[in-house]
């Protein structure tokens, strides 16, 4: 109980800092923070399937990209008003997630991940080649936003509100009976099946939820950056967000957000000094795998909470 | 034009041959990946980087020997060995301690290596395009049904079956091959009968990586050797291995054949979305055969 109250205090403090952030910080840092929240939401949605569902969601960036493209194209090519187009992103991502999920869900673990990568690459290839509609490898830049979101602080507050709301909804889902069943499936799918749980259906619902919130993150990226490009759904980004989840702690709820903050922040500052960001990221990843397999938050929790038991994913 | 004429038209025949020579490269790389997946159970994302390093090493060796024919043959032999040496260091230095980890961790670890290798290549060779000169004996083309077909691609069509036969002999007719196949099924039992499984794994890993380097060295004269050539290839190699059946060499051959042909013919049929066709084929195959076309060792 005490730790929960402590966490709550921390969250209120961080929330208060984030609310006053644009008033005191220069524009660049506000943009960076908005980018971190967007990426963090993406990683949290990935972790909903990966850490809590035990599903090898290897190509999560596809749903991020689909969300961003659905919104961007609806504004630029189909002429919808931005507020309506924002709804298209998550819905399109959830639909694509459902389709890919239905095809992949029969397979387990590594096979699931591989088939998902191939389907995701299919989506990427279509976006990459369809010059007339998606803008091909250049993507589309300078997407017009409504006046309210035109200023950088407007975009920031919109991102903050949507991210916080999405995180809250996902947290409630993790703590709901559905979330408990999902974690039960992760720990032992055979036993879950034996006590009458519909394993595939639960995993499919988890995938659609994860895809939906990845789509929300995609929409936020359009709001923050006003652009869409095919690299958003290339498989290397999918791997990078898995790294973020791992670094922060993939069996914790806030770990992925922390991992995103560390890596996006680090990338921004390191890139000004050196062009070898991938080398540094690779070394960080190796160190994390060897020394911190539960991530930063996982390590801290194990350190300060005696009763902590690391969940294991059934192979 | 009726259908039969279209199938037999020179353009289609030539494109099929081009697809087959692409198949050879894909097969050589994918078979190495499949070998490592089958025996060591490591989904080696760094395999594509080794292919890229093989191509860059081929460039360096070839220019050290002054280009030309000598340079080419030296590159074909030395570059894969260089890649094999690199993989030996990585395997003995790090991987051998981590075999018991989850697949996800191993996959991410190899991804970390691919990131590091990518930047090391950028440091050593720079970000510019490199080309490996085509040796004189392979320059020019031979006419196939009136259309020119490069001699080098014909050479590749010879190399591919040779590698396949070599791998078949290695895995089924030699002691190390038999032991490695046994270790793929039950590594503890193989250890219990007195085999040093750790070194069997190391040798299998090195042979797999050598194949990646060979693929890179072979492809170097016909493409621009550049950063990022690993990203598309590793994806294709993984799809081929999954489509064929994990750990199955013949599966890798079949998968490479399907992928290479759909790729080259796809571009002929539908220029704009040609690259979508091989991916779509993989999806269709896996929809009906979720664990691949041939028997997987997993």
Features:
heterodimer; A: 315 residues; ABC transporter involved in vitamin B12 uptake, BtuC; 0% strand; B: 298 residues; mainly alpha; two-stranded antiparallel sheet; 2 strands
Structure commentary:
The complex is a heterodimer of chains A (315) and B (298). By secondary structure, chain A is an all-alpha fold. Chain A contains 15 helices and no strands. In chain A, helix 2 (27-50) packs antiparallel against helix 11 (199-225) and helix 12 crosses helix 13. Chain A starts with a helix and ends in an 11-residue tail after the last helix. With 298 residues, chain B is mostly helical. In chain B, 73% of the residues lie in helices and 3% in strands. Chain B is built from twelve helices and two strands; from the N terminus they run αααααββααααααα. Chain B has helices spanning 3-8, 10-40, 47-64, 68-93, 103-125, 151-173, 175-185, 187-192, 197-219, 229-244, 249-269, 276-288; strands at residues 141-144, 147-150. Chain B has a two-stranded antiparallel sheet with strand order 1-2. The termini of chain B are far apart. In chain B, 50% of the residues are buried. Classes of the chains: A mainly alpha (315), B mainly alpha (298).
Element-by-element helix/strand order of chain A? HHHHHHHHHHHHHHH
Shape of chain B: globular
Number of helices of chain A: 15
Shape of chain A: globular
Structural class of chain B: mainly alpha
| Integer average pLDDT of chain B | 86
Catalogue the unreliable spans of chain A: none
End-to-end Cα distance of chain A: 34 Å
DSSP helix fraction of chain A: over 70%
CATH A-level architecture of chain A? Orthogonal Bundle
């Amino acid at each position: 109980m005490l730790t929960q109250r402590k966490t709550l205090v921390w969250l209120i403090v961080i929330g208060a800092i984030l609310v006053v952030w644009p008033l005191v910080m220069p524009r660049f840092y506000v943009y960076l923070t908005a980018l971190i929240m967007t990426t963090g939401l993406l990683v949290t949605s990935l972790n909903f399937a990966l850490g809590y569902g035990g599903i090898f969601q290897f190509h999560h960036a596809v749903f991020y990209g689909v969300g961003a493209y659905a919104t961007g194209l609806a504004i630029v090519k189909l002429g919808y008003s931005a507020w309506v187009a924002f709804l298209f992103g998550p819905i399109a991502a959830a639909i694509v997630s459902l389709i890919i999920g239905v095809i992949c869900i029969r397979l387990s673990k590594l096979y699931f991940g591989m088939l998902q990568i191939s389907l995701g690459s299919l989506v990427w290839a279509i976006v990459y080649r369809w010059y007339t509609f998606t803008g091909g490898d250049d993507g589309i830049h300078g997407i017009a936003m409504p006046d309210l979101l035109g200023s950088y602080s407007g975009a920031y507050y919109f991102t903050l509100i949507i991210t916080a709301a999405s995180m809250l909804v996902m947290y409630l889902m993790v703590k709901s009976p559905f979330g408990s069943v999902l974690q039960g499936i992760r720990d032992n799918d055979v036993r879950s099946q034996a006590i009458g749980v519909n394993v595939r259906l639960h995993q499919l619902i988890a995938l659609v939820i994860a895809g939906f919130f990845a789509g929300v993150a995609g929409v936020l990226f359009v709001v923050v950056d006003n652009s869409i490009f095919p690299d958003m759904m290339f498989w290397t980004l999918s791997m990078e967000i898995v790294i973020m989840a791992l670094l922060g702690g993939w069996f914790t709820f806030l770990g992925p957000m922390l991992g995103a903050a560390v890596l996006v922040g680090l990338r921004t500052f390191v890139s000004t000094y050196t062009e070898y960001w991938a080398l540094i990221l690779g070394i960080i990843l190796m160190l994390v795998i060897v020394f911190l397999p539960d991530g930063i938050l996982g390590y801290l929790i194990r350190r300060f909470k005696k009763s902590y038991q690391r969940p294991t994913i059934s192979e | 034009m009726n259908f039969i004429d279209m199938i037999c038209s020179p353009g289609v025949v030539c494109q099929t041959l081009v697809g087959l020579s692409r198949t050879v490269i894909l097969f050589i790389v994918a078979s190495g990946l499949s070998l490592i997946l089958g025996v060591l159970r490591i989904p080696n994302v760094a395999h594509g980087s080794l292919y890229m390093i093989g191509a860059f090493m081929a460039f360096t060796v070839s220019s050290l020997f002054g280009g030309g024919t000598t340079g080419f043959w030296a590159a074909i032999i030395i570059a894969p060995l260089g890649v094999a040496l690199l993989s030996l260091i990585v395997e003995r230095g790090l991987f051998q301690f981590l075999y018991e980890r989850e697949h996800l961790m191993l996959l991410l670890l190899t991804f970390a290596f691919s990131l590091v290798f990518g930047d090391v290549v950028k440091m050593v060779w720079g970000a510019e395009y490199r080309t490996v000169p085509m040796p004189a004996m392979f320059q020019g083309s031979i006419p196939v049904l009136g259309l020119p077909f490069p001699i080098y691609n014909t050479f590749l069509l010879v190399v591919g079956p040779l590698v396949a036969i070599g791998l078949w002999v290695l895995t089924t007719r030699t002691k190390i091959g038999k032991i490695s196949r046994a270790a793929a099924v039950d590594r503890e039992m193989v250890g219990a009968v007195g085999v040093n499984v750790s070194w069997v794994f190391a040798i299998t890993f090195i042979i797999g990586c050598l194949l990646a380097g060979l693929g890179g060295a072979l492809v170097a004269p016909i493409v621009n050797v550049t950063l990022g050539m690993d990203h598309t290839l590793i994806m294709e190699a993984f799809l081929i291995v999954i489509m064929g059946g994990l750990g199955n060499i013949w599966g890798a051959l079949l998968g490479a054949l399907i992928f290479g042909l759909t790729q080259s013919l796809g571009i002929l049929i539908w220029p704009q979305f040609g690259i979508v066709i091989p991916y779509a084929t993989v999806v269709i195959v896996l929809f009906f055969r979720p664990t691949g076309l041939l028997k997987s060792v997993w």
